[in-house]
Predict the structure.
Amino acid sequence: MTLATFLQLEREARHAITPETFRFVVVNETRRLIHYDQAVLWKKDSAGKARIEAVSGVAEHSGEAPYIHWLESTIAARLRLDSAGRAHVITHVDISPAELSDWNEWIGGTVLWVPLLTSRGEIHGGLWLVRTAGGWQAGEQALLERLGDAYAHAWQALERQAGRPVFRNGGKPGLQRYRAAIPVLLALLLLLPIRQSALAPAEIIPVDPVIVTAPLEGVISAIHVQPNSAVRKGDLLFSLDDTTLRNKYEVALKAAEVARAEYLRAAQKAFKDEASKSELSMLRAQVSLREAEASYTGELLEKVDVHATRDGIAIFTAVNDWLGKPVIVGEKVITLADPAQTEIQLWLPVDDAISLETGAEVKLFLNTDPTRPLSGTLRQTSYEPQITAAGNLAFQLKARLDAAGAAPRVGLKGTGKIYGKRVLLISYLLRRPISALRRFTGF
């Protein structure tokens, strides 16, 4: 039974067609022949260090795990010993006192060191077999040493097969002639004209929207419409708190009444008192001033209620974001837009900027439906780049949507693709590297 299992394992290792299959056979299937608690397959690199290839019981292992780091350093230390080239048992006695605590934590038993040697007797890798209970018998050690020789041969054959070149001297007749044609084909391919294109974040925005701003400084007390709701011309949109203005208006009216009363009293006295005539002009001016103050305050009071100046939809954030918020004169509160008149706004990063002309083709891939792009035509490009909301420097582009179907909803986002002139493939591929080189060197 043991011999049959040995031959089966050897056959599976030699017939493994991928490195993953080979590693699985070595660390997992070997348990059919010899019992162990854990098997680790490691490989020696050119610097003499160990790299963990596979661990039994797990599909993939993390190279950043503390246990893997400890294994690699411990195996690398064992590689510097004279006994590294032959199979032997490692116990806690063979571990330095500084590493004994780690040994007890990670191993807690004995390890069978099985090197996998090349045909020249050099260490190619090895097996690290852990057994927490009981020791290793001499027969088991000899059996695994023999199996390790088969594993080493299969491993090297698999690596040679993976690194075999496509064109060999013993290949089919005529293949050598195509090798010389490859550079020519690549050169011709680089001279093919292709159409320049660039990707940019995009959004559906309204055409010629009306910006509704705060008419005076104050605090928003009420929003009378909901976001994205339809409004008619003259509908009440929002109101500012009028407590302060109403009080000022009442005070101004009273002051105007007092000024008029004083003027009338002085006018009546002027029939008998010549001195009172000199005060009439000043009191008349006071009446005019108080009436003007009352009229101005009344006009401001009429502006606390803001109405729509056109039909459309009201675009703004949530109602609760504005209630109780102080605003200044001219601050944007609501945007009124015609839902049937929309266009595409793109922010083309400076690093991706290409030569664009008005009328260039634009495609928009919406996040809500990326399989059906919208077509458009570039109508406007900004002369200078601007800082976007994301903090990037980009050019603002606007594209007119082609008249096909219903207009997309305002606010939809996606990725826009802008097409430019045709250039050579080599110019298209080297555009960004050359630009980066110029910024780095200053030429």
Observations:
- The chain is about 35% helix and 30% strand.
- The two ends are 75 Å apart (CA to CA).
- The longest helix spans residues 274-302.
